[in-house]
Structure formats: structure tokens, C-alpha cells
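Q: I'm building a small set of examples for a reading group on sequence design. Run inverse folding on the following structure and report the sequence directly after it, with nothing in between.
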């Protein structure tokens, strides 16, 4: 008779750092409009970065932010993201919704 053994796994969300992002309106209020994009832009200085960045916001069912992640930084014209890295963070935050923020710095440097 064969005995099947399964590994037991434990998932835990660990703060990446003690750094907090200065997003006054986003953190305290319910996310109801695109003003969250403006606040994230200010907090991460996305419009001033020389490389593309990919930011993930994890929201609960009441539209409050549970987690903010900088998933990836790329180059001037691309950033590579694995879909698993997005879902992993969303699941660990128990998010029911996500918002993705992304910049395009290469557009600033185009000449006509």
C-alpha cells in the first residue's frame, strides 16, 4: 500500500523595509477615482525617473489600500514583469482588487 505525503507550506507577508511612502490622500481615503494615480506619481516620482517602473496597489473589498509594491524597474523603454510576482503580492495582502501604475520615460526624450 502506498502512502502519499504532502508538503505543508506557510505563507507570510513580511515588510520589505521600514520605509513608508508619502501618499496622504491614498492611504487614508477610500479609492474612488483616478486621483490615486496622481498621488502614486508624486510618492514614487514616476515622472522624474529615467527608467520604467511598475507599481502595484493592492486594495481590499472596501477599496482601501492594503499594500503598495514596486514590483519592477526596467530600462528607458521597457520593464519586464512576471505575472506571478503580481499575483503573489496581491494574494499575500488578501487583495480583492489591484491597481497597476506604470510610467513611460522614453516618451519625454523623443525628438520631433
Amino acid at each position: 500500500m502506498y502512502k502519499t505525503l504532502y508538503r505543508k507550506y506557510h505563507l507570510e507577508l513580511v515588510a520589505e523595509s521600514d520605509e513608508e511612502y508619502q501618499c496622504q490622500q491614498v492611504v487614508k481615503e477610500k479609492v474612488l477615482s483616478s486621483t490615486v494615480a496622481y498621488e502614486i506619481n508624486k510618492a514614487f516620482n514616476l515622472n522624474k525617473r529615467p527608467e520604467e517602473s511598475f507599481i502595484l496597489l493592492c486594495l481590499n473589498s472596501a477599496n482601501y489600500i492594503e499594500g503598495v509594491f514596486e514590483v519592477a524597474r526596467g530600462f528607458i523603454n521597457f520593464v519586464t514583469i512576471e505575472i506571478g510576482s503580481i499575483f503573489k503580492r496581491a494574494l499575500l495582502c488578501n487583495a480583492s482588487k489591484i491597481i497597476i501604475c506604470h510610467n513611460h520615460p522614453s516618451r519625454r526624450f523623443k525628438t520631433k
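The chain has one domain: 24-109.
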